[in-house]
Specification:
- This protein has 423 residues and is of the alpha+beta class.
- The chain has 3 domains: 175 residues; 73 residues, SH3 type barrels; 139 residues, no CATH class.
- The protein contains 2 helices and 22 strands.
Length: 423
């Protein structure tokens, strides 16, 4: 669209420029013709003025001769001669008068002609000046049109270049995405059997590259169920073969590639540390646990403290040396040591002493007669800020509930209730 508009603008500007140039040429020709006419008129006027001056001079000379003849006649002694001389003098005087009058008339006509010629010169000069101004304006208009055409063409070229760059970037991005997806599913080149793990060497592996999990051992896009980040610890329970490729079967029933370039068996103290993140987790250590900002636990990296009985929102398990850590959904890390945290999925955890929790939900919560928290079993609402005594933690499907001292149940969602420090 931008290219078409720019081309139309450029064509229009070029047409205007051509018209302006033609007008300028016509104006220039008119100015040249006017200048030539003025020059010719001035030359004719000068020639006629010269003739008039010459005629006036001749008339003056004849008049002088007539006057001299008359004077000579008056001085003659012979009467007959005087009469004859007088007659000749009168004739010469009359001829001089006629000649002088004719010369004067001719001079007047010549003066009028010269004045008209001068006026034509002035008019021609004005016309030439106007034509020159029109030519200059036409030139400026042509230059502006040419500049506009150049700008339009430049804008069109820039728009085309930007669109081409955008298309190229999109194509490159799509190619990169396709390449990355292909790399997660299979090696860049055909792998041999030596490139795969064909037997389980330990209970856990650590991913060295990002990869995808699949619901079946045949890796198809429709079977893709999740992405696994580099550095994740996964529980391996077996090896499955798909054609000439091998897959790891994980503890949750999903499959990943067993290519050695994507993961590796590492020494982990699986007897003392958890290596499978499935399930619901709570803090069971008597003194609670600390949260850290990194995988290496140093005092300077402590960012929080979690009391015994706190429910953990686990995102994945990572390796640190020969131990494992829980990475929480808030980006912090806690120990995955079996004596400090416990998986309570399908279990009931009884507290030795009741734990204090506080309702933090803005609109409060409800307490129920049963752990499934069915609406028909609601007892009453509990306001925000209310403190409760918890005696047990119970799992109900994928959910966790608190059992309070009066035998009722409330949610254990950390967004609604929180453990509080006992005073």
């Amino acid at each position: 669209m931008a290219q078409t508009v720019a081309n139309d603008a450029a064509s229009s500007a070029a047409a205007h420029a051509t018209t302006a140039a033609s007008d300028a040429a016509v104006a220039h020709d008119a100015a040249s013709a006017a200048s030539q006419a003025a020059s010719n008129a001035a030359s004719d006027a000068n020639e006629q003025a010269g003739k008039a001056a010459s005629a006036a001079s001749d008339a003056q000379t004849q008049a002088d001769s007539a006057a001299k003849a008359a004077s000579d006649a008056k001085q003659a002694t012979d009467p007959t001669s005087d009469a004859k001389a007088a007659t000749e003098a009168n004739a010469a005087a009359n001829a001089a008068v006629v000649t002088t009058a004719s010369a004067a008339g001719t001079a007047l006509v010549d003066q009028q002609t010269a004045s008209a010629a001068r006026q034509r010169v002035i008019n021609s000069q004005a016309a030439a000046a106007q034509a020159a101004a029109d030519a200059a304006a036409a030139s400026r208009s042509a230059a502006a049109s040419a500049s506009a055409a150049s700008a339009a063409l430049a804008a069109a070229s820039a728009a085309a270049a930007a669109k081409a760059a955008s298309d190229a970037a999109s194509a490159q991005s799509q190619a990169a995405a396709n390449s990355a997806a292909a790399k997660h599913d299979q090696p860049a080149t055909q792998a041999s059997e030596e490139d795969y793990y064909t037997a389980v060497k330990a209970k856990a592996i650590t991913t060295s590259k990002g990869l995808y999990r699949y619901s079946r051992k045949t890796f198809k896009h429709a079977k893709k169920i999740g992405y696994v980040k580099p550095g994740t610890v996964l529980h391996v329970i077996g090896i499955a073969k798909s054609g000439s490729a091998y897959r790891f079967e994980l503890g949750d029933g999903s499959f990943i590639t067993s290519l050695k370039s994507f993961s590796q068996f590492g020494h982990i103290r699986t007897s003392a540390y958890h290596y499978d993140s499935r399930g619901k987790w709570i803090v069971t250590g008597q003194k609670g646990v600390y949260e850290y900002s990194g995988q290496t636990f140093r005092k300077a990296k402590r960012v929080g403290y979690l009391k015994r009985g706190t429910v953990l929102q686990v995102k994945r398990i990572v390796k640190s040396g020969i131990t494992t850590r829980f990475e929480l959904t808030n980006g912090h890390y806690v120990t995955a040591k079996k004596t400090m945290v416990m998986n309570v999925r399908g279990k009931t955890f009884e507290y030795a002493t009741p734990q204090n929790v506080k309702v933090v939900a803005a609109h409060g919560i409800f307490k129920y007669k049963t752990s499934n928290l069915a609406k028909r079993h609601r007892v009453r609402s509990i306001k925000r800020g209310t403190h409760l005594k918890v005696t047990a933690l119970i799992t109900q499907g994928n959910k966790i509930r608190f059992k309070i001292t009066n035998g009722n149940y409330v949610t254990a969602d950390v967004r609604m209730v929180r453990f509080v420090q006992t005073k």
